[in-house]
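User: I'm designing a mutation panel for Peptidase C56 PfpI and want to avoid disrupting the core. Could you give me a predicted structure to guide residue selection? Please restate the sequence first so the numbering is unambiguous.

Assistant: Good idea. Sequence first, for numbering, then the predicted structure tokens:
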Amino acid sequence: MTRELQGMRVAILATDGVERVELDQPRGALQGAGAKTEIVSLHPGEIQARQFDLNAAGTFPVDRLVADASVDDYHALLLPGGTMNPDQLRMDRDAVRFVRDFMAGGKPVASICHGPWTLAEADAVRGRRLTSWPSIRTDLRNAGAEVVDDQEVVVDGQLVTSRGPADLPAFCAAVVEQFARAHHPMPG
């Protein structure tokens, strides 16, 4: 187990309908590298996870409400997908502000599957190169993004994106690598 993210605090912004594997696997990779993760959400208690959007897949305890969270409390942000999860997040003023503040502050952000919907709502994809689940690519293009269809992971500065669950091994590796680069910048 490596510790390259020791001392890093990562917010995982998610709500009901989050795709379980897209929260579990990146969180495990981050924690395995030494990061502390917190689930930041729209309501207290627990959020309902899904598998393939259709099947109940347990719950996750919420650590903090997004209305009470500050970008200053975290070093990086993870936006998992699932269709319902980002659709609800992009309708919440506090969630959109939280994402916008991360992007404006230059802190690392990773998003998979439908997660970039919230980035688009925060007007944070204009001029960015990224990838996503196929069904939201037109939305991202309309928001000014350059969308890549044929890569499992796309890194554009502070932003790491991926297409979906099949790309999780590559996504998790890229997230740890990019977050470590931001956490311990190379002298230069």
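For picking mutation sites, this is relevant: Helices lie at 20-32, 84-89, 93-104, 116-121, 137-142, 168-183. Residues 128 and 145 are 5 Å apart (CA to CA).
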